[in-house]
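so my prof wants the structure for this chain in the tokens format not the other one, which i didnt know existed until like an hour ago. anyway here's the sequence
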Amino acid sequence: MTKPFVVLDSCVLISFLLQHDKNYEEAKHLITHLFTEPRSFTILLSPLVLYETGIVTTRSGESENTIADRLYKLLRYDEVVIVSLSDLAVFKHLRHTARLTVREPQIKTQDMLILNTAMEFNALLVSFDKPLLKICERLGFAACATQQALAAYTLSF
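here's what i got, hopefully its the right format
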């Protein structure tokens, strides 16, 4: 049986890496749940998420070595996959993007790419970004921001 996919938004990963972040505890619980749930998940990270995470955490004042160490500890798990876009996938994303911008013209470009990645893999999107979560809700797409919601999603399998 294949593991369900989860796409992490950069705000969750940033909160997980920065212990002084207001969402640190929730991010820690969410990510811990992803690894300790008996069914387990495959966590998908896009290069954009890693780029945004690198920029924001570097500006946070946290030591680069500390951030690199925390990120490495997460990325070394077999359940974490960095999803790169092939040329063909870019065209598929463009098709989804055209549809999304018609339905949700206010969506930010980076949110559109994260959402497209989740849609492409039929994955649960985990984010603290309230506007993005509202867009997912309007589109009828699975997204969550809390450990309880993630647990409820797990039960649906």
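also thought this was worth mentioning. The helical segments are 10-17, 24-36, 47-59, 64-75, 87-103, 109-120, 130-139, 147-155.
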